[in-house]
Fold these 3 entries.
Entry 1:
Amino acid sequence: MCIPSEYFQLANLSRLHSIHVEYDPRAGGPAPPLLANLIENHSSSLVNIRINYQFTSFDLSIVKAIGTCQHLKSLSLNRVRLSLEELTGLLVACANVGQGTREEVGTDATPEHRIGGLTTLCLEEFGSPRSELDLSHTLPPLSHLEHLRVVMMLGLSCDSKLRMLALCPNLKSLSWGRNIYERQLPAYQWAEHQESGMWPLLTSLDVSGEEFRDEILSRFINNSPSPFERLLTKGTGFGLLTYNSVISAERHYNHI
């Protein structure tokens, strides 16, 4: 049974905090402009958006609507197909979340007047499986983002994946996974980024989807600005160097 389009034209539900949309190919789903309208009509109250919707194209209207949200804290996108333009627009929209002010003085407000920003972003099975997405544009930082989960980022080049991670300097937890057809992250470049202090607050790291070597894992531990509380990795990379780093570090691990 298809959800009537009238449901997506609702407005002024001042207590609507969450939207969760699941697409069923047998029943159909809302056209992208309808979903965009629903989000934009409740941009002042939405805190959580979760979309599991297999668009052939994500549509920039939804991307722009996400960017208008004032209090959005969590965004989850699953099985969404994105062009480079849409992916770039999405990252800009995530950075724009909460950039309005209580006094409605616009996006150039000083930080103390801003409402806040997106803190949790989950992207699973998204991207473009048939083309290479190269994030060569200069993009605004996701300075409020604390928790990032990425699984199967299709079509994005390795350098672009690192550029995306570099947009998130205040990450506290990172979960990164990929399928066998995706290229592995350039581990040495990632380790160099971490050693330079790019993610000083990172305390939870799940790279169980990557084939990192023992040397790289030990560098993660030895050079992390903050002590890891949670570390998940494939056993194939956990060797003597990593073991020695774990037992010799004067740090506390709650979960390994």
Entry 2:
Amino acid sequence: MYCSVCGVSCQDTDDDFVELLRGLNERAPVLETCSRHFGQLVTAWQKMACAEGEVGEVVKEEGEWEVGRNNLCALSLSSLANILTELQKYNHSTSTDALNTIGFTFDLYHRYNKQAKDMLYKRLGKVQALVEASKQLDKAKPDQKEEMERVRAEAMVSYTGINSTAKTEMEERFGRLGVVSLRKSLVDFTESQLIHSRCLLAQLSSLHSQLCIITWPTDHTH
């Protein structure tokens, strides 16, 4: 496995860390793809909200023009404009909530993923340093033994320290906290969608009732 920290290939003997690093490297492009598609989805919501607002304004103006000329048509157009306004609010709120919840989690996961990889590659550097120090100790001449033992001892302390830190970080921050963050963002987004959906449903129900009572005068000419 190539270590970007020490600049050489080195073999990690801890299978758990090897699998963690392999998983992080495989997950990185998946996260980038998800983030990109999510951005496209948010942009679509925003464009839809913008379009609904623009069409709603045109329909509203047309309805106002029909007042006094064809009041039933004016009332129908006014109702349509109100429906488009409510849909605009809904899609705008959806895009904002999505950015503040799911979007935040994607960003957080991306940072966690990068920090985790940096830490594991740094750990690989410590592995290589320990391996190299052990080799140098084995090859050291009698008058160099003491110095090489000191170097190896320091390398062992560094390796042990980062090993302990890496285990804690991967289990706590990149494991438990990542799941907790994802769960919270999904709960927040779902709750906000329920609130907006209820408001939209109430408004659409009211507008539907208004449209249902619009009737044309009975034609008695035939």
Entry 3:
Amino acid sequence: MHELPEASRWMVERFGEHAHQVRVALAEAARASQEYALDAKAGSKLESNEAYGALWRILGHQVATHMNFLPGHEQVHPKDSRFPLIVFRGTLVFPVRYSSSPHGGDKIRIDVSEYRARVYALNGREPEAVQGHLDLGQEFDAGRVRVVRDGSFGSAERVVTVACAVSARGGLQHVYYGEAAPDALGFLDWTHREELPQSLLDSSITGLALSSDPGVGGRFDQAPLPESPISLRTDAEGNQDQSATGGGGE
């Protein structure tokens, strides 16, 4: 069990007393996304990584799920988004996946669609280069949280980017978070950046972030196993069944 270092002043300014749990939630979301994407790849029986390629969407849903413990948060589904987003105290949490770089967080490049340009315009730093494709969205239902369905960003006034370096072969390598916007080439230009400790990405830690509603946001594999009705049968029981049904050999 590892103890997480004290949250920075920057984190506390945005997430208050929940800053510690937010970092844990981001790590749990990243680990769960990698696990589910690998499961999808294994289930597809394909040698390619086509099924694993859905990780970026899985990541978006997992971040929203693991951060739904924040009191009074909004869950928004902006126009053209493929997954819901969390807004807390005016801060929009925006997850992206990128290919790992030897330059660490200094050379993170992402695709910049018209949708992402709208996201980063919240920081007053709209990207210079915008690609023409859109991320087409779909409805997402939640429990007892405020869900904004008008295609907007709700009460968001700023964006916190969560950038995850993860791949099928290399695993979960880095998770950076902070304030950034893509430049003309799609490289994130950070005005503030922090990184989750590697120990947090590799294992569990104290102070786990929990959903405010035990029935919301749980993982499908955390439910108790059902009791199996299957049991061993004696030869006498088998013979009785055959007599009752007329079964038996020829």
